[in-house]
Amino acid sequence: MSDDILVSVEQVSRFYGPIRAVDGVSFEVRRGEVLGFLGPNGAGKSTTMQMITGNLAPTAGQIKIHGIDILDEPKRAKAEIGFLPELPPLYKELNVDEYLTYCARLNKIPAAKVAAAVDNAKQRCGLTQMHKRLIGNLSKGYQQRVGIAQAIIHSPAVVILDEPTVGLDPIQIREIRALIRELGGTHSVILSTHILPEVQAVCDRVQIINKGQLVLSDTIDGLSRRMEGSSVLVALRKTVELDALGTLPGVSSVDALGDNRYRIHFAKDQNPAEALVEKSVQQGWGLYELTPERMSLEEIFVNITRTDEAATETAA
Q1: pLDDT at 307 (0 to 100)
Q2: Which residues constitute the domain of residue 194?
């Protein structure tokens, strides 16, 4: 296995009696990569995360963390993981230094290196000025920072973050996202979130799981290409027959929207915009609006999961 592959999930399945919660999932996460892991409720996302962190044994398949099989050598494998659950495991009666020192000892950092590890985690998470503050008195954003600090205090190869920005205000969200991007430079990061713009903001790749199976795995660049629409909105001064628009090169169909507005659908890589402009000038149609349509990540997510559900219902 390549030293750059820090998480390897191979044909992993998990059964609960006759129910197959996860079905033959395979993927890898490389060093310096932030993976966005998405899925609707009940899709198998939490089960997969629990298996990767070693909290749940797979029924079949293999999971390796930094080349270490998590079933064969669970202690060694788990030592390479830093985990921030949705509800951070904080002791709010402790101050930041006390809590992070406790976490360093839990992670078996040698006593002579505990202070340096705590200082490094505080510096990376912007907590240096908060070291004597009680955790219970910190804002939600700073409590999330403390949660991330405990996840990285032992310099793990892999950092897993579950909904790290839930409940934060917009400024705190920007700060935590910047921190996640920084972590992605030196760790493999798996980010589980329901906030779809967050994936676009911080991730290098995105995976969507539905009904226990991966239904999409793509880079953010590839996702951006998927988001490029195959339709344009057009507004004309004059009423035009649909057939006249339908004969433009690449056009597959035309919808009349009223008030001389039209949605023109076209085949992929055959955008008729240039031909439309030329034809409009020649015919005096009075083109005054030409707007390319783009799909949002939310629309892609809904389309993929609904398509998968529809296929299942059809098969049934």
Answers
A1: 56
A2: 1-80+182-210
Give me the residue label for tokens 């015919």: 283
Instruction: Assess whether 199 and 240 both reside in one domain.
Output: no
Q: How many domains does the chain have?
A: 2
Could you identify the residue written with the tokens 């930094």?
66
pLDDT at residue 315 in the model: 44
Helix 111-124 / helix 96-106 crossing angle, nearest 10 deg: 120
Task: Kindly state whether residues 205 and 280 are assigned to the same domain.
Answer: no
pTM equals: 0.79
3-state SS string for 134-182: EHHHCCHHHHHHHHHHHHHCCCCCEEEEECCCCCCCHHHHHHHHHHHHH
Decide: 38 and 223 in contact? Cβ < 8 Å: no
Report yes or no on 277 lying in a domain: yes
CATH of the domain at 61: 3.40.50.300
Residues 264 and 229 in one domain: yes
Can you read off the two tokens belonging to residue 46?
A: 């939490």
- One-letter amino acid of 194: H
The CA-atom distances, in angstroms, between 271 and each of 56, 286, 288, 300 are 49, 20, 18, 20
Q: How far apart are CA 49 and CA 226, in angstroms?
A: 26
66 three-state secondary structure: coil
Tens digits of residue pLDDT in 228-276: 778 899 999 999 999 999 999 989 999 999 999 999 999 877 889 999 9
3 state DSSP class of 250 = coil
The single-letter DSSP state of residue 276 is H
Alpha helical stretches, state H, the chain: 45-52, 74-78, 96-106, 111-124, 140-152, 170-183, 196-202, 220-227, 242-246, 273-283, 297-315
In a domain, 267, yes or no: yes
Of the pLDDT bands very low, low, confident and very high (cuts 50, 70, 90), residue 86 is: confident
Side chain identity, residue 85: P
